[in-house]
Design a protein that fits this description.
It is a single chain. The protein has a domain of 61 residues: Surface presentation of antigens (SPOA). The protein contains three helices and four strands. A four-stranded antiparallel β-sheet has the order 1-2-3-4, with no helix packed on it. Strand 3 and strand 4 form a beta hairpin.
């Protein structure tokens, strides 16, 4: 008896599903297609943060010195680092590695030319 009750319901639902034609929408009804959300421009999104100061560091090198050598430092002392023009260096912004670059000397000033910006991954 239960099979007889279920069969008519399945038969009634089948014609609606098998029609395959889209149902008409009432006049003035909004379209079902949703436009993609616009991708925000980072310059506009963060424009209000443009004047926030950030610490930018390019570590040219580190050396170990004993206490006697540190105590003997005076104006004009030279610390020899193991880096030269053309060597690679990491660029850190607010404690986060942002880029890699090349040490260059421009008009007697040590600079870093950015060679590789890291992605946000």
């Amino acid at each position: 008896m239960m099979a007889q009750l279920e069969a008519p319901q399945a038969q009634q639902a089948a014609p609606q599903a098998s029609q395959g034609a889209p149902q008409a929408q009432p006049a003035g009804a909004p379209s079902r297609q949703v436009p993609p959300e616009p991708v925000p421009d980072p310059a506009v999104e963060c424009g209000h943060l443009g004047d926030v100061p950030l610490r930018v560091e390019a570590v040219l090198g580190r050396i170990n010195m004993n206490m006697r050598a540190v105590a003997s430092l005076e104006e004009g002392s030279l610390l020899t680092l193991q880096r030269a023009a053309g060597d690679n260096v990491d660029l850190w912004v607010a404690g986060v590695k942002l880029a890699s670059g090349e040490i260059v000397v421009l008009e007697n000033t040590v600079c870093v030319r950015i060679t590789d910006l890291l992605s946000g991954e």
